[in-house]
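Minutes, project huddle
Topic: does the predicted pose make sense with iron/sulfur cluster bound?
PN asked that the exact inputs be recorded in the minutes so nobody has to dig through chat later. Recorded below.
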Amino acid sequence: MNIHFYRRMTQVVVLIIIFLIPIFDILRYDVAAKELYIFGSVWTLGLPTDTFTDMSKHGSAAVAIRFVLKAVLPWFLILTVFPILGFLFGRFACGWFCPEGALFELTEFLTLKLIGRRNIYMKKSNDPAIKRGNPFLYGFLSILFLITVPPITGIFLTGFFIAPAVIWREVSHLQISAGLYTGIIGVTIYMCITSIFVRHIFCRYVCAAGLMQTLFGWLSPYSLRIRFDRKNFARCTNCKGCEKVCFMDVLPRLPRKDINCVNCGECIVACEKELGTDNNLFSFKFGNKE
Ligand code: SF4
Ligand code: SF4
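Predicted holo structure (tokens), as shared on screen:
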């Protein structure tokens, strides 16, 4: 089992966790109640109703402290997650945890099998040399994917806004409300457009979480990155396997720190295939020192 296997397993586990969050009532902004639910309870400032009539210094201080602890601090912590991740691990979270990244990789694989290249618009020099599959089989799988995965995902993700018990009742009685329809159609359109036409362009230029990790990973002298062993360059057979597996279009043998690298480790796996696990020229390292 190599990095590729562990990364796929991580992506699957993250997807399952995301789908389970609403089911276990861990997080939901309930649009009907207009309340934020965390672990089944409404998230409030927790102030007694008479607090606002208490004009004393003690009363005002209690309100201010509660407000900072329950409204400002949680948002601050949430907003610092991606800069901290980027500072320490570069875009590792994009390569290993992002469900959209996993979706783009899957649709790129189907495209490769169908038309022999990753990009639907043009052939690129780093397209993997993969054997095209049976067009009927992969055409069928692609259509099956598009008509099932986005609507099902839409049903699960709507659980972040409508109680899953309500959703289940609507689905099982085939009485879909306007809210659930909106969720299903919105997610389906979004997933179809991004996974067919946009893919990793979204990761490179649009995703706010990705861009924060990029910026802080780039500025950080300590962040995790893929390192090519230049001292042993002579071992390289120039098979270009490391370039062809890179869905972020990075040239991993170049010494510069490329801000688009998501530390997925696929270039390590490709080089292991060519040179064996002991001679592989790539490794993960923290910091800028060679
Ligand atoms: S350079 Fe390697 S680790 Fe970075 S994105 Fe490309 S394949 Fe993944
Ligand atoms: S996969 Fe390894 S051997 Fe092949 S080109 Fe890349 S570094 Fe060289």
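Observations noted during the meeting:
- The first strand starts at residue 27 and ends at 30.
- The domain at 222-286 is CATH 3.30.70 (Alpha-Beta Plaits).
No decisions taken; revisit at the next huddle.
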